[in-house]
Specification:
The complex is a heterodimer of chains A (163) and B (786). With 163 residues, chain A is α+β, with helices and mostly antiparallel strands. In chain A, 50% of the residues lie in helices and 21% in strands. Chain A is built from four helices and six strands. Chain B folds into five domains: 193 residues, no CATH class; 59 residues; 188 residues, no CATH class; 87 residues, Phosphorylase Kinase, domain 1 (2-Layer Sandwich); 208 residues, Aminoglycoside phosphotransferase (APH), C-terminal lobe (Aminoglycoside 3'-phosphotransferase, Chain: A, domain 2, Alpha-Beta Complex), CATH 3.90.1200. In chain B, 40% of the residues lie in helices and 23% in strands. Chain B has 22 helices and 32 strands. In chain B, the strands form seven sheets. In chain B, strands 6-5-4-10-9-8-7 form a seven-stranded antiparallel beta sheet, with helices on both faces. Chain B has a seven-stranded antiparallel beta sheet with strand order 13-12-11-17-16-15-14, sandwiched between helices. Chain B is elongated. The chains are: A alpha+beta (163), B alpha+beta (786).
Chain lengths: 163, 786
């Protein structure tokens, strides 16, 4: 099974463990926060607070399930820079492996939102002429992200081939 | 000619207005006459705004009519506002027309706009990707047309011109965009195109879609039938219940959607004609708005053929193409945009004809399509039997769909990236999807539900194929660039010698060789060749000086030389036997090795040829025979030419190139040897093979060239060994290593060092191949970094 998504010859590079911590935090916090608003509205509007209780219980279940998957999801991410292309894999249930030739890259972006910055993380996104490419590596340390961006840009120029 | 030209005087109907450009009398240099678009422009634009508002408002009113009673009192308020808006639009239109000036002449294409913020757009002719003519109804009534200039990322509109001028400009600009020289005056004589279809006299219609077929196919198409059926059901049900008014709110958007569809698929595609014009493929279409768009073939990224269920009755197909930079024009209902439709409805023959034009040289029929495994039926129970994929060395094809069957064709060179995907159900069935990503457009090639292992193999090998195809394409472009003007007068010349293109024996950077008969070949020098006379005369003298010498090897001889139809040619003696390179591809090792020994023998025999001068010398080229006192002087003079073009590239690809260069010179300075004839390019493509008593042996060496010199004979021996590595058969590298061992056995161990030195020499010598032969260039880099 695993070999379908393994890169030829190379070893996957994995994401920073801080990414796992960040996802653990969001898994615990986000579902209760999101579901509190409808729960309160339902409670206030109908007066049946036991429905709100159910919603909160559901939030807790979602949080726990997500928490259980964070480790696997984090482990599922991997990327590797080969001579001519970059491979990225991720996904636990729905798995994917994407290969982007350096010669096709038009743009390499490094982004870091407030939450990511708090955890010392950054996301690298690669764009080609195709909108479907969607090659994204989240959860990198800023140094690794910058290194990857510079490296990819350099390789992109070296392999540049018009359209 | 005058700079202070009164604008109204420049009637746009008068072609002489632009053509009386600045050439005839070179008086004031910088004042070039610019002109305004047609004076009716503001009216047409004002009218368009009027219509746009009317439609927008009308839609709003109709949509709301279901819910609210229409308030007629509001109309008295709306109408004045409406009037003001239209007048303002007309005024803006007038100013934008007044401050728009353009010039299209032999030198430039420039458009100036803006009253306060002046903007001048100058588009280099070569950057033009396509030039389209668009005629909205209002403009069409006045006989005006918009010229839409597409250059890479930006689209510039020039509106409005008279239709005949617009099409003349279009023809002229497209000619210039193809890099051909033309004067705008030459095009003025051309007959005007037909008003209905915008087809010029020289345009050859390939496919024309008749109105009957267009309408019938539309009525049978799924995208029409589904909303139509839903509408009928809703109407029937609500009418039966006597509550049709209730459904109106839901029905009206549906009906508007259907009307939009009619507008796009029928009105917009009316009189659809795909035509071959001297400047490429062209599509004209439209009932009210006439659109004439050129199809930029080099920007096509993929082709999709689709067939809705009911079209199977008639055997009809629809063809869409991904064109780089065209977002889908269908999006915002602007039907005058360039669209990605290549054929709205066509029979199989027409589809094949059209695809043959947009993907020239691709052989799609020979691609074997593989079905997805049977177990795919658990995931795609509704269309698993339609899933297919296949590829050859240039394209990949995927097929899918039962309700609407679609076939996506993507040339490998256009592949952007690939993705393997697998969901949980697929995982349990060991299936996976492979997505081949292409730029934005209708083509979406996905090989669905492949066996895991096949999927992985397809995805990973696809990138290699894409790389190979891109390299081949680049090489092809370079070769094309060399060839563009090469066919001039060629047909007549070949016919005069009783031969034609099918008799092409070989081609190189300098010339092409055609078979004339058993004993003679015609060598046609490329028209870009700087001095074919000199080269041929020097070669002839050299060959003649060897005619009395028998070294047991057939050598070329120039029998005749001359010039005809502007092309220089020689008639050479045909070397007997077959080309060694072609033979090597198919020979087995037992035959190959003795033949390779004979190839080495032949190479060694070349040094027995008498040299025309005593010392080191270049034998062909300007000032030849040009003598040098040392070997290193001669060889660095040989390297000067190629390095001039490749130095920057080498410095980029090989940081240590200066060091390699210095080392080569110091090593060459240590070589002491008596000069002999060096062919300079002894490689299998230049050798000929005949059947000897013990099997096939090399019996002739041809194609002496500017590489030929009087120098170290080991240059050829080294060349024979190392160029063998470049042969495209599987064991070439192994054979080269083996042959090197044979040579070392014959000449002693010390030649190993010199072969290594000459590897670097040839690495530099052929490095200008970066521009046209990536394969050869990467070989050069390997030699230099050894």
């Amino acid at each position: 099974m695993e070999e379908l998504f393994a890169p030829p010859v190379y070893e996957w590079k994995r994401l920073s463990p801080k990414f796992r911590s960040m996802r653990q935090l969001t898994s615990i916090v986000v579902p209760p926060v999101l579901l509190t608003i409808p729960a309160v509205i339902v409670g206030v509007a109908s007066g049946r607070w036991w429905i709100s209780g159910l919603i909160w219980a559901a939030a807790a279940v979602i949080a726990i399930v997500r928490l259980a998957f964070v480790g696997r999801s984090w482990r599922s991410w991997g990327y590797v820079e080969r001579e001519d292309d970059l491979y990225i894999t991720h996904g636990v249930m729905f798995r994917s492996l994407i290969a982007v030739p350096y010669g096709r890259m038009q743009l390499v972006e490094v982004e870091s939102g407030p939450l990511e910055r708090a955890f010392g993380l950054a996301t690298v996104t690669l764009k080609t002429a195709s909108p479907e490419t969607g090659a994204r590596i989240p959860g990198l340390s800023p140094e690794e992200a910058t290194r990857l961006r510079d490296r990819l840009t350099e390789l992109g120029e070296a392999h540049a081939s018009g359209l | 000619m005058t700079a202070s030209h009164p604008p109204q005087h420049t009637s746009a109907d008068d072609p002489a207005a632009t053509t009386a450009g600045p050439q005839p009398v070179p008086t004031g240099p910088s004042f070039k006459q610019t002109e305004r678009p047609h004076p009716l422009t503001p009216f047409v634009r004002g009218w368009l705004v009027f219509v746009a508002i009317a439609i927008g408002w009308g839609r709003e009113i109709i949509t709301n009519a279901g819910d609210d009673q229409f308030d007629s009192g509001g109309l008295t308020l709306i109408l004045p506002i409406f009037g003001v808006v239209v007048v303002m639009a007309a005024v803006t239109g007038f100013f934008s027309w007044y401050f728009t000036r353009f010039v299209i002449d032999d030198e430039e294409l420039r458009i100036e706009t803006g009253a306060i913020f002046k903007k001048s757009t100058k588009i280099p002719f070569e950057r033009l990707q396509s030039v389209d003519i668009i005629q909205p109804l209002a403009a069409r009534i006045f006989g005006l047309a918009e010229l839409r200039l597409d250059a890479g990322n930006s689209t510039t509109k020039l509106r409005y011109l008279t239709r005949s001028r617009a099409s003349r400009f279009r023809d002229y600009l497209l000619t210039r965009a193809h890099g051909q020289k033309a004067s705008i005056r030459d095009l003025d004589q051309q007959a005007a195109a037909s008003v209905l279809t915008d087809l010029g006299v020289s345009d050859q219609p390939l496919v024309q879609v008749s109105p009957q077929r267009l309408i019938l196919s539309f009525l049978l198409s799924s995208e029409w039938l589904i909303p139509a059926t839903i509408t009928i059901i809703i109407v029937a049900v609500t009418a039966a219940a006597g509550a049709i008014a209730l459904a109106l709110g839901g029905l009206i958007p549906l009906i508007i959607g259907m009307l939009t569809l009619i507008w796009r698929r029928v009105i917009g595609m009316f009189n659809f004609t795909l035509a071959e014009s001297p400047r490429g493929l062209r599509i004209t279409r439209g009932l009210t708005n006439l659109t004439s768009q050129s199809v930029p073939i080099n920007r096509i990224q993929g082709v999709k053929t689709s067939q809705p269920l009911l079209w199977r009755l008639q055997g009809w197909y629809r063809v869409d193409v991904d064109i780089l930079g065209y977002t889908q024009g269908d999006g915002d209902g602007d039907e005058s945009n360039a669209s990605s439709v290549l054929l709205p409805v066509a029979t199989l023959d027409e589809v094949e004809l059209a695809i043959g034009r947009v993907l020239p040289g691709f052989d799609l029929d020979d691609i074997e399509l593989h079905p997805s495994p049977r177990r795919a039926r658990w995931v795609r129970w509704f269309d698993f039997w339609t899933l297919r994929y296949g590829w050859d060395d240039r394209t990949l094809i995927t097929e899918q769909g039962w309700f609407t069957h679609a076939r996506d064709v993507v040339p490998h060179a256009k592949t952007q990236s690939v993705r393997i995907e697998q969901g949980p159900l697929q995982r349990s069935l060991r299936l996976a999807d492979v997505h081949i990503h292409t730029p934005r457009g209708p083509v979406n090639a996905v090989a669905h539900q492949l066996d895991e292992r096949t999927a992985r193999e397809l995805a990973l090998s696809q990138l290699d194929r894409a790389r190979a195809a891109r390299a081949a394409e680049r090489q092809g472009r370079a070769v094309d660039a060399v060839r563009t003007d090469d066919h001039q007068g060629e047909v007549e010349l070949l016919a005069a010698f009783g031969t034609d293109r099918d008799q092409l024996l070989g081609s190189g950077g300098e010339s092409e060789v055609f078979a004339v008969d058993h004993d003679r070949v015609l060598r046609l020098y490329r028209s870009r060749h700087e001095a074919p006379h000199r080269t041929a005369a020097q070669l002839r003298a050299l060959y003649n000086s060897w005619s009395g010498v028998d070294i047991g090897l057939e050598l070329p001889l120039i029998l005749e030389m001359g010039e005809r139809n502007g092309r220089f040619f020689t008639v050479d003696r045909r070397l007997s036997g077959r080309n060694f390179s072609g033979w090597l591809q198919h020979a087995d090792m037992a035959q190959r090795r003795p033949a390779l020994i004979s190839f080495l023998d032949a190479t060694e025999r070349l040094q027995e040829l008498p040299g025309p001068v005593p010392g080191f010398a270049r034998l062909i080229g300007e000032g030849a025979p040009q003598q040098f006192s040392t070997l290193v002087d001669l060889l660095s003079s040989m390297l000067r030419g190629p390095l001039q073009s490749s130095q920057t590239q080498l410095e980029r690809d090989l940081p240590a190139v200066a060091e390699v260069w210095n080392r080569l010179h110091s090593e060459l300075a240590q070589r002491s040897v008596a000069p002999a004839i060096v062919h300079g390019d002894v490689c299998p493509p230049n050798a000929y093979l005949s059947q000897g008593p013990q099997g096939p042996v090399v019996t002739g060496i041809g194609d002496f060239s500017p590489h030929t010199m009087h120098a170290d004979p080991l240059l050829d021996i080294a060349g024979a060994l190392i160029f063998l590595e470049l042969e495209p058969y599987a064991d070439a590298a192994a054979d080269a290593a083996w042959l090197e061992a044979v040579a070392v056995e014959r000449h002693g161990r010390e030649i190993v060092h010199w072969i290594d030195v000459y590897r670097r020499f040839y690495g530099f010598y052929f490095s200008n191949a970066y521009a046209f032969d990536p394969n050869l260039y990467s070989w050069c880099l390997r030699q230099l970094s050894r």
